[in-house]
């Protein structure tokens, strides 16, 4: 047997070695993916932490881009985000008080909706009872809305014209009674 000839016993050894090389390559690929994923998560967390620190300093809501309209800020309480911190706090405190005072009305509205659902699902349909429950629910909803709107108007009366303009922009961007929908496109 010469040096260039391979013994018959090398074929299984080569196959065995190839399997180990493939296993090693897959393990290395898994490790590289894990390290890259961990680095990405760390970087994303650091970016978020910087964003929170910036929003705390600038007064924008957490999770919102600094200096811009909040992407995730929804609800009437965020309408005053463009105002100075003391005005923003006064607006939110007032809203909190209005909602606290209207808690019984809100609960009545919830109960009314549950009653409407119960009445609609009943085997015997009672139109008069459904309409009465809807009227009670509507009255409670309207009373809460009137109180919230009165607070917004009272608050706006205390603002300077520039602050009032900022509040109007915030209100228009929110969903709710002051939302200004985009006009429909004409065909």
From TrEMBL:
Residues 53-73 have a biased composition (Low complexity). It holds the Pfam family Metal_resist. The keyword Membrane applies. Residues 52-73 are annotated as: Disordered. InterPro entries: Metal_resist. The keyword Transport does not apply. The chain crosses the membrane at residues 20-40. Keywords: Membrane, Transmembrane, Transmembrane helix. It comes from the Bacteria. This is Periplasmic heavy metal sensor.
